[in-house]
Design brief:
With 51 residues, this protein is mainly alpha-helical. Helix content is 86%, strand content 0%. The chain has a domain of 34 residues. It is built from 2 helices and no strands. The radius of gyration is 22 Å and the shape is rod-shaped. It starts with a helix and ends with a helix. The mean pLDDT is 83.
Length: 51
Amino acid sequence: MSQRNEDIEIERKEKKSDPSKVAATFIKYAAYVIILVIILWFLVQYILPKF
């Protein structure tokens, strides 16, 4: 029974720093930033000169 508890503890520690979740989150927010930059570039290039 103590062996099973140790396995659960090890599994919990691994989930806290799961590299695949970190990478997925980084990619998601990087995509948000890229989309934001594209929108801002569009505004500066096409919308603002008309004013």
